Amino acid sequence: MEALLSNKALWVPATAWCLAQVLKVIIGSLKDKRLNWSYLTTMGGMPSAHATLVCALATTIAVVYGVGSAFFAIAALFALVVMYDAAGVRQTVSTQSTMLNRILEELFKGNPAFQQRLRELIGHTKFEVAAGASLGIVFALLLAWEW
Known about the structure:
The protein is mainly alpha-helical. Helix content is 70%, strand content 0%. The protein has helices at residues 2-5, 8-32, 49-65, 70-107, 126-144. Helix 2 (8-32) crosses helix 5 (126-144) and helix 3 packs parallel to helix 5. It is elongated, with a radius of gyration of 18 Å. The two termini are 25 Å apart. 31% of the residues are buried. The mean pLDDT is 84.
């Protein structure tokens, strides 16, 4: 158990992810002008918890093992793929969901068979990903670095 608790590459990114999720609740609630706990478990929103997690992981590995290590190379490439997916592919799905919901609403008004809607908040804007990445990097530097 001690080895698990002392593994910075595990607990620093996990804690950073939790922080990002709490910030999503705060920012989303301010935007909605009411406390909205659903941001704690939904995809999308500000900041990107995905970007926070993978950047905190890559930064922690850089601090612990060095930027020349194979561990850092793997983590950094993993982070790039996750962030590309969050801001690219998933954001496109989010946009398409919004458009499909509008089409269904117009074509099938009042038809109970078409009442179910697609989830629209799935991906992230580039700003949300950049904010999440910055949060993850700064958080990991503050916690993983041995001053």
